[in-house]
Amino acid sequence: MRQIRFEQISKSFDGEEVISGLNLEIPAGKFFALLGPSGCGKTTLLRLVAGLENVDSGKIYLGDRNITKQPIYERQINTVFQQYALFPHLSVFENIAYPLRIKRTKDKIIREKVYDVLKMIRLLGFEKKNIKSLSGGQKQRVALARALISEPEVLLLDEPLAALDPKLKEQVLIELIELQDKLKTTFIYVTHDQFEALTVADQMAIMNNDGHIEQIGTPKQIYEFPASCFVAKFVGNTNIIEGKLLEISDLFKIKVEGLGKFEVFAPAKKNWMIAGCNLFLSIRPEKIFISKKEIEGFSNHMKGRVDNIIYYGRSTQYNVILKNGKKLMVFEQNEEHFPQEIIDYDDEVNLYFQKENVVLLQG
Predict the structure, then answer these.
(1) Cα end-to-end distance, the chain, whole Å
(2) In sequence order, what are the beta bridge partners of 32?
């Protein structure tokens, strides 16, 4: 197992720079996700490491080996594409065996390896089936098997679940996690779907619209402690509230126009955090408690009126108009069949959040 390292990578298409001076190290043997909006350059980065595109400048390393100009077939890197790129005229067996056939591997070894990988992806008994007869999830598994049969050092997955329905997608995500954990192969997973990235990744990198890395960390680090407003809004849902930093002591005291003063605990003081500066408070909707009653024990309190309610089954989303006219989103877990308190449209409500559940971001 060897890590992938990008050093000062730049790439342009038709004079338009997609990636500029990018540095990134992907640890060996990890499930790593590249997450970002469409057009940010994440698929381009995947194609560069696969050898499907050439870099304009910079270097790519697999371990200590510079693979920047190495041919595709020498890189020990395979790709699973969004559309799977399977051969419709070949059986499941022959689709999986294809990489070994072109290497002129002996039939006995091909048979052993194909059946090993069929067992691993839970498709034993499907080897004679035609690709056209398979479901989307089964096709995805065949594409995975074909990519893995050559035992690559790195497996690249370019939005491989985009064509699957949500229920099947959840199932395949779990299977991918189990597969990577068993093989210990480095997986690099490209997606614009934050749910997929948070589900599968050991570590992840967030790319912005300019093709730069905004933040690298574990899914929990990125979700709980986003480094910027872009990351906070892109990964999950959040409420961004503009305020002014009044005082720094054991707690940060912040004034929000039309709402009053709030106390926030921040684990570390940043250089830009000085009294009088403008900043943003990021509060996840599930970290806000909503009630028509006034309750003690919370650090911070706001009032508002329920403007909209969206029922999701396991949770309910309330869109609340605050006293200053701004909107706030609240998620409430539906834990009881018959809740003691029913919140309806146009109800006046109290919103509570703890000082530890706020992230301060630079204004």
Answers:
(1) 42
(2) 188, 203
Written as one letter, the residue type at 31 is F
Q: Which domains does the chain have, with CATH numbers?
A: 4-233 (3.40.50.300), 241-362 (2.40.50.140)
The pTM for the full model equals 0.91
Pairing of strands 31-35, 203-207: parallel
* Mean pLDDT along residues 29-54: 95
For tokens 């200053």, the residue is: 324
Name 83's Cβ contacts closer than 8 Å, sequence gap at least 6: 163
Tell me: the pLDDT tens digits for 104-119? 999 999 999 999 999 9
Could you give the strand order of the β-sheet that contains 213-217, starting from the edge strand earlier in sequence?
77-80, 154-158, 186-191, 31-35, 203-207, 213-217
| Count of alpha carbons within 13 angstroms of residue 203, beta-carbon side | 13
| Contact present, 189 and 173 (Cβ < 8 Å) | no
Q: Is 341 helix (H, G, I), strand (E, B) or coil?
A: coil
Q: Is the separation of the CB atoms in 130 and 58 below 8 Å?
A: no
223 sits in the region (left: phi over 0; alpha: psi -120 to 50; else beta) called: alpha
- pLDDT tens digits along 281-324: 999 999 999 999 999 999 999 999 999 999 999 999 999 999 99
- DSSP H or E stretch at residue 35: strand 31-35
